[in-house]
Amino acid sequence: MNTTTKYAATALAAALGITVLAGCGSDDGSAGSGASKGSGSKTVTLVSHDSFNVSKEVLEEFTKETGYTVKTLKSGDAGAALNQEILTKGSPRGDVFFGVDNTLLSRALDNGLFTAYEAKGLERLAPDTQTDEKHRVTPVDTGDICVNYDKKYFADKKLAPPQTFADLLKPAYKNLLVTENAAGSSPGLGFLLGTIAAEGEDGYEAYWKKLKANGVKVVDGWEQAYNEEFSGSAGGKKAKADRPLVVSYASSPPVEVLYADPQPKEAPTGVATGTCFRQTEYAGLLAGAKNEAGGKALLDFMISKTFQEDMPLNMFVNPVVKDAELPELFTKHGEKVDTPPTVTPEKIAANREQWIQSWQSLVLK
Questions:
Q1: How is residue 162 annotated by DSSP?
Q2: Percent of the chain, pLDDT > 90?
Q3: Is the confidence at residue 331, as pLDDT, over 70?
Q4: CA 5 to chain CA centroid, nearest Å
Q5: SS3 146
Q6: Are 47 and 89 a contacting pair, CB within 8 Å?
Q7: Least confident of 23-37, 88-102, 150-164, 278-292
Q8: Closest to 39 (Cα-Cα) out of 68, 60, 71
Q9: Three-state SS for 164?
Q10: Helical segments of 200-266, H only
Q11: Residues 22/70, Cβ–Cβ less than 8 Å
Q12: CA angle 100, 349, 72 (to 5 degrees)
């Protein structure tokens, strides 16, 4: 998801500025002080990106069931958090790492960050999320990166919003789309990978040449794109933004409803479901963890129905457990994308840097 997807809550009135809850422990930014207590410690330290969020009651349930208290150590966005763990591999700052997604998974695995552990309950997970046969990581959530559109803009113009990657090249949508830099932004990279999945490795460069000619605007990151350039978001309205198309997530519309006051009956934004790319986020037991037993218990809990059903309105991602139920806000205002394009972690690993460099030379020069 940073990833994933938690983006929107940060943007809308600092919705993800809701303090991350860490059971009875504190998130003081110390370097894994909970894990340093040794294998007998009753504190398990979770290292994550800044967007990790879970209800206090859910973590209290984990403590009640296992005796362990969760301490969270937030470490910036997903890429920054992963880089810090690579720098400290073998002597990790915590016990479990959460937040590496399929676009960066190969970096984590190639650097040997995780100890293999087959979490209890994997048989309840969607099969397509279980990409690591060695169980070095456990799938926790999915999110779909998609183009969002400003419903009012298209209604006022009496123009149908685009629905596919091909639609974005049409003259009717010239100078309407803003996206993020694929070299430094998770949704920007996801959108690039979506075009590669849709157009093929032989066709994506030609696609981006046409998209550039059709006036796509590239900004540094999601916050700027969604909250400053996109006319359909709460932040964009305040900024008098003029781009009615933005690369965001399929779960952005429910967030616009959840944090509006008063809440509208209908989301002001929609999703172009033919422009999506699926991200999967994983958690893993860090190699060298001081509290392996606590880390394994936490991984088991993260794929429990209790934890999975808590995620949608806290991290704005989808459960990977097949029997987990989505809240009404998601089902009413979000978009269910059944078979979005994706690219295997192995193919991403082999080509990511080349694809990004090619994209930069085509789009940013």
A1: P
A2: 69
A3: yes
A4: 4
A5: strand
A6: no
A7: 23-37
A8: 68
A9: strand
A10: 204-213, 222-224, 234-238, 252-258
A11: yes
A12: 10
Residue-level pLDDT at 28: 37
Instruction: Please check the confidence at residue 38 and state whether its pLDDT lies above 70.
Output: no
Q: What are phi and psi of 147, to 5 degrees?
A: -70, 130
Write down the residue that tokens 């998974």 correspond to: 105
pLDDT tier at 79, thresholds 50, 70, 90: confident
Residue 20: what are its φ and ψ, rounded to 5°? Answer: -65, 130
Residues whose CB falls within 8 Å of the CB of residue 62, separated by 6 or more in sequence, listed in order: 23, 68, 70, 297, 298, 301, 307
**Both tokens of residue 246?**
């933005």
> In sequence order, what are the beta bridge partners of 47?
73, 97
Which residues, other chains included, contact 64 with Cβ-Cβ below 8 Å and sequence gap of 6+?
Answer: none
d(CA 246, CA 260): 19
Cβ contacts of residue 119 below 8 Å, gap of 6+?
Answer: 135, 138, 296, 299, 300, 302, 303
Residue 39: per-residue pLDDT: 54
| Number of Cβ atoms within 10 Å of the Cβ of 267 | 24
Structure-token match 């699926």, residue found: 278
Q: Which of 121-125, 128-132, 243-247, 310-314 has the lowest mean pLDDT?
A: 128-132
Give the CA count within 13 Å in the CB-facing half-sphere of 65: 16
| Pair 241, 231: CB distance under 8 Å | yes
> For the residues 337-352, what does the mean pLDDT come to?
86
pLDDT of the residue at 18: 29
Residue-by-residue DSSP string for 248-285: EETTHHHHHHHT-SSPPSS-SEEEEEEEEEEEEEEEEE
Mean of pLDDT over the chain: 87
Strands 69-74, 43-48: pairing kind: parallel
For the chain, give the percent of residues with pLDDT over 70: 89
- 250 closest CA partner among 344, 167, 348, 333: 333
